[in-house]
DNA sequence: GATACTGATGAAAACGATTACATGGGTTAC
DNA sequence: GTAACCCATGTAATCGTTTTCATCAGTATC
């Protein structure tokens, strides 16, 4: 590790001058500055991040927090965009999960690591720990969970569900079912959009038509789909908590010999890549991953660069309907 | 940020004693030590990682390096397991991609960030930069590329392709085609396994039956599949560079009215989750993501904890065949 | 009772950078 | 010719830890 001191010695100047030259400060003789920069480059000098971080209480690191299961497509896609944006903004991205907790906490971890800011991407939003972190002095942005007095970037769950219902309605569907995920912000807002959309068209939603499932889960999707299809008056269109569930659901439909898009329709959520790969292609709601990441990092950076001014942005990213063969006109 | 000095003052001892107490060193009065620990806890003291890192030239950070496209399932799954393992080993995981490069390099980035070690997960392995990093004093493990004198964790590409060919052969397939990815370690070793497997069974492989495609790419998979099916004597079984390509290929087959698993067989690679979700399910080679990650981190940690002893482990992770409906007996 | 030893504690250096302040030579102004 | 000023440069403090070394009281040994 070649230090600034070494560069200074090699250049025959003090560390102060070397530092100034390398940082391009004005008050140093241009010729000498160039010489210093050259020697630094030739020696392969790179500033020590730890020293910098110590000196200016800034680490240049942004932490991405989540519980687990990063590999689901939604998270993978989002994470990828977050990485692009954080790097664009000049930060490194550390992903921190829960496993390391042996008495440690997200909050103290953030503090100890000097994380300049954190993105809470997926977590048990009801845990005291998350609440503490979100309301602490550490700049934070929460994705897809509506926290009071915090920066949140939300998906327009209610509006999107409404639009999906509307699209189904306009294709003639009148008996709509919704298999939703575990309760929480995302599910609750989606449910609300679902009911709202139905109400707007004067559709009654039977109690049996709304089933709680499990996000990304094969068994639950298969079972719930079966239960709906067994109803005396089965739905003509089923909404799923996410694309993965929808695809498993479609498998269950096919297994019963139903022709998807004609006998029955299926609608996913998230717009993962698989949606266009399955057959039939899955109609779904495509999240705008790039926009989510961009706004998240934007807000986070603003909070980092303006310490003291705690903001509470509430941004909503809409996304858009992604057509697919799985949603067809209701058969007469 | 509550510092050690503050804790020491509050406890009425020197920072040295406070440090010793918190680190559980023996030479401090037990009662006093407990008192110090209590005050530290009550004040919410957390050690400053930057200071630690500066003091002990260790950051507790492991860097995961790759070019881009982290969101493909293979990388997402691997990344997830890597995270689990690094956290188990007590490290944080930073993902570093290429975008930040504005004259900066992976190598100097690793140096400046005090990264204790790096995993080179995906990159242009021919670039001078990667070669320099891999051969530098920074502990490094390379995944799925065979570097001389470096720690590498490889997939048993040759053996797995051989086994896949053998399985197809035993199902009666005699005309095997291989759409492979861009050249590089993975592709070359797979090709070698493919030819070896064919040779063992005395199969001749026509020049037209081996096509260079593009990893994870829809267009290339579709086009190459079409080209193979248009041959006067089309293959009875097509191997693909990865599952994504195989799935697109299957779509092309279906589009021609072929019944997959009977008229034609398709075999993927990687064993991503989508493989069991498509219809027909995709026969593929399932990577042992957990084992890859475990060994990678294990070797990396060994190198970190034994500085100076540069190892050059060559570990091979086998994975296993994952059956699927897409590979069936050849029709008579 | 003097000497050596032990064990707890504190003072201070060190890690590698930035930066406030001091210094000193050269220029300008009267 | 002297005062005032400017600009380049160096000295040293600082960030929060760990750790070496010194100190000092108490105890054991002869």
Structure report:
- The structure is a homodimer.
- By secondary structure, chain A is of the alpha/beta class.
- Chain A folds into three domains: about 45 residues, 434 Repressor (Amino-terminal Domain) (Orthogonal Bundle); about 130 residues, 3-Layer(aba) Sandwich (Rossmann fold), CATH 3.40.50; about 130 residues, Response regulator (Rossmann fold, 3-Layer(aba) Sandwich).
- The first copy, chain A, is about 40% helix and about 15% strand.
- Chain A contains twelve helices and twelve strands.
- A six-stranded parallel β-sheet of chain A has the order 2-1-3-4-5-11, sandwiched between helices. In chain A, strands 7-6-8-9 form a four-stranded parallel β-sheet, with helices on both faces. A two-stranded antiparallel sheet of chain A has the order 10-12.
- In chain A, strand 8, helix 11 and strand 9 form a beta-alpha-beta unit.
- The longest helix of chain A is centred in the last third of the chain and has 17 residues.
- The model of chain A has no long low-confidence stretch (mean pLDDT about 90).
- At the A-B interface, helix 4, helix 5, strand 2, helix 6 and helix 11 of A face helix 4, helix 5, strand 2, helix 6 and helix 11 of B.
- Strand 2 of chain A pairs antiparallel with strand 2 of chain B, so a sheet runs across the interface.
- Chain A binds a DNA duplex (30 and 30 nucleotides) through helix 2 and helix 4.
């Amino acid at each position: 590790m070649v230090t600034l001191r070494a560069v200074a010695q090699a250049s025959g100047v003090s560390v102060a001058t070397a530092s100034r030259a390398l940082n391009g400060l004005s008050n140093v003789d241009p010729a000498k500055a160039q010489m210093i920069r050259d020697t630094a480059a030739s020696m392969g000098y790179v500033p020590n991040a730890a020293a910098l971080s110590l000196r200016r209480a800034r680490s240049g690191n942004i932490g991405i927090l989540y519980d687990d299961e990063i590999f689901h497509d939604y998270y993978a896609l989002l994470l990828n965009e977050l990485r692009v944006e954080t790097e664009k903004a000049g930060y490194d991205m550390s992903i921190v999960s829960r496993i390391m907790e042996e008495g440690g906490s997200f909050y103290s971890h953030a503090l100890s690591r000097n994380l300049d800011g954190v993105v809470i991407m997926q977590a048990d939003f009801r845990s005291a720990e998350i609440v503490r972190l979100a309301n602490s002095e550490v700049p934070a942005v929460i994705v897809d969970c509506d926290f009071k007095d915090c920066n949140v970037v939300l998906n327009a769950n209610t509006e999107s569900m409404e639009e999906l219902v509307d699209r189904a309605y306009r294709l003639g569907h009148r008996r709509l079912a919704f298999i939703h995920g575990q309760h929480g912000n995302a599910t609750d807002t989606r449910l609300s959009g679902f009911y709202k959309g139905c109400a707007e068209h004067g559709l009654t939603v039977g109690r049996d038509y709304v089933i709680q499932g499990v996000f990304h889960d094969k068994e639950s999707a298969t079972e719930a789909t079966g239960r709906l299809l067994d109803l005396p008056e089965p739905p003509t269109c089923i909404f799923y908590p996410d694309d993965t569930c929808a695809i498993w659901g479609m498998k269950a439909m096919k297994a019963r010999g139903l022709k998807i898009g004609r006998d029955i329709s299926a609608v996913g959520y998230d717009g993962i890549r698989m949606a266009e790969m399955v057959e039939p292609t899955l109609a779904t709601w495509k999240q705008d991953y790039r926009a989510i990441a961009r706004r998240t990092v934007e807000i986070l950076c603003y909070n980092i660069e303006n310490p003291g001014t705690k903001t509470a942005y509430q941004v909503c990213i809409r996304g858009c309907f992604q057509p697919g063969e799985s949603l067809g006109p209701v058969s007469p």
